[in-house]
Amino acid sequence: xxxxxxxxxxxxxxxxxxxxxTADTRLSRGFVPVQEGVEITEVLGGLExxxxxxxxxxxxxxxxxxxGAIRIVKDGTLSDxxxxxxxxxxxxxxxxxxxxVRGQGGLLDIAASPNFADDKLLFFTYATGKLDANRTAxxxxxxxxxxxxxxxxxxxxxxxxxxxxHFGSRLAFxxxxxLLATIGDGGNPPLEFLDTLQRExxxxxxxxxxxxxxIKPDGSVPDGNPFAELAGAKPEVWSFGxxxxxxxxxxxxxxAVWVSEHGPLGGDELNRVEKGANYGWPRVTFGRDYRDGSxxxxxxxxxxxxxxxxxxxxxxxxxxxxxxxxxxxPDWKGNLLSTGLASRDIRRIEIEDGKVVGETRIPVGTTRxxxxxxxxxxxLYAVTDGAEGTLLRIEPAP
Length: 398
What we know:
four-stranded antiparallel β-sheet, disordered N terminus, about 400 residues, single chain
């Protein structure tokens, strides 16, 4: 299942003192070098709370907005046509400025089928319901070239939660065409679920909260899931003990699954996720409570939990995650790229033998970064968060 840590530290542990004990975890804090040789240009504006981004084989970019709209970008031009998602998503419309999204829900990720050239399937994650009862769901539809056809919901979290937090909601395909999806833990204290703190569900295999699930493209359970034969456990669960994972990629060469997740204050993580593994939330974390900075747990590691490959103890707030395979930046091949909401940058993460060996940052400015994708020419496209979201192009500097 990867590298386990055996160290348990006191509540007053300093991160400096714990570095030696967490030999398999790289700590990201303080100075991160700026990546040289990069040029960033704004392609277009006019996006409203964009969340997901995917590139089709013909170069078309499809962008989801949390209000339930899908935007089309062709040849650097944003189409005036907004495709309406077939399902009502968790949003709130009010105010003179138009659509205001309540909480973190809405239409979220989008991913094209690995067999898109033949089946034209697009997959989506989204939040359904209202503020007092909502769920993460997954659906698929056929792309017609200018819209969606034959929409089907193929999965939803079995029990509704309250409030508008922590839906998780990223998608990635494995080499066998099964689909991985991240499900958030549901929210911060004082939010409760079944008479305990909502976040405790990340350790409950009878719940989807705080997990990575694996399903077939039709939503059914594939062979080989680790808990499919365990009485009471959710058969779709692939790994658990996650907080709010909003980045996931699969390395097509090695099969490695990488997941980036929001931790609490100073507790963001990049994990190499293994089948059946427990990543510890909320039993172990580098982070502290948002409300007052207090310790959530005295433990940063434990015998039964997998250690993160990278812990951002200076908050990064990772959103989209990408494994670079393009030609524009040949030295980056096999590296991970992570967009940051709080850090307002893109992190280039160097991987060797399954471990993080380096990190640089691409500053973007004062804007929260939401997701990124590789263009057909190997350059990168990224979307910025917010009511006035933009599409950026990232290419080698002249």
